[in-house]
Design a protein that fits this description.
Order of helices and strands: EHEEHEHHHHHHHH
Largest sheet: 4 strands, antiparallel
CATH class: Alpha Beta
Number of strands: 4
Mean pLDDT: 90
Structural class: alpha+beta
Strand order of the largest sheet: 2-3-1-4
Helix content: 40-55%
Distance between the termini: 26 Å
CATH superfamily: Transposase IS200-like
Radius of gyration: 19 Å
Oligomer: single chain
Strand content: 5-15%
């Protein structure tokens, strides 16, 4: 089956996943995490991409980002990825690729899923059993979004800004989002949308994305496209 082109829309947040080749480790030590974030910060500034949330796991990375134009995310990932691979190969005396092919991404409905994706990203170390609470993991945006630690890489999304009038109120409201576990429904929706490049949101959002991009934002119904002329001709034969 032909691979669908990625969905891009300036000003619309995207959830991005980049995995290590063969699920191998991409980070060996503290300096590696720091280097990745430094390269990411430079690329985000250069290509006008706002980074709202991130987590650097041992063998993959999650980002929540909003580009100013259609090329922003692609250029960011290409530039940042290239620099980090050069750093990594030089540091560890290796050659060849580090990342597993193309990164995966989905457009996120800000009204329906934006803060849910924030949570999904920053709870990755908890789901992986690496820590018992998101605050214990040093290589995510939780310390900034929930605790107020200064991370220059980050730009709050407008949806995050609406959590409170002051930084303290926003952080308190944000921490409250992490009480309890995420629903399986939300977990599956985020994973499927990101891995298969569908839009993540309600039906209205998906229809808007299709109208603006000219590309399907949802999978075809089982058994084929029920709206297609071919389906209608063959259904009752």
């Amino acid at each position: 089956m032909a691979r669908l082109p990625r969905l891009y829309l300036p000003g619309c947040a995207q959830h991005i996943i980049q995995r290590g080749n063969n699920r191998d480790a991409c980070f060996y030590g503290e300096a590696d995490y720091q280097a990745y974030l430094a390269f990411l910060k430079d690329a985000a500034a250069k290509y006008q991409v706002d980074i709202h949330a991130f987590v650097l796991m041992t063998n993959h990375v999650h980002l929540l980002a909003t580009p100013a134009d259609e090329q922003g995310i692609g250029r960011l990932m290409q530039a940042q990825g290239r620099k980090y691979v050069q750093y990594f190969n030089h540091t560890y005396g290796r050659t060849g690729t580090l990342w597993e092919g193309r990164y995966k991404s989905t457009l996120v409905d800000a009204n329906a899923y934006l803060l849910t994706v924030y949570r999904y990203i920053e709870l990755n170390p908890v789901r992986a059993g690496m820590v018992t609470h998101a605050s214990e993991y040093p290589w995510s945006s939780y310390s900034s979004n929930a605790m107020g630690k200064a991370i220059q890489l980050l730009t709050p999304h407008p949806q995050y800004a609406q959590l409170g009038k002051t930084a303290k109120e926003r952080q308190q409201a944000y921490r409250s989002l992490f009480r309890g576990r995420m629903s399986e429904r939300d977990l599956m929706a985020i994973r499927e949308s990101t891995n298969k490049a569908w839009a993540l949101g309600n039906d209205r959002f998906k229809a808007q994305i299709e109208a603006k991009t000219g590309r399907r934002a949802i999978p075809l119904g089982r058994g084929g496209d029920r709206k297609s002329e071919k389906y209608r001709r063959t259904k009752y034969q």
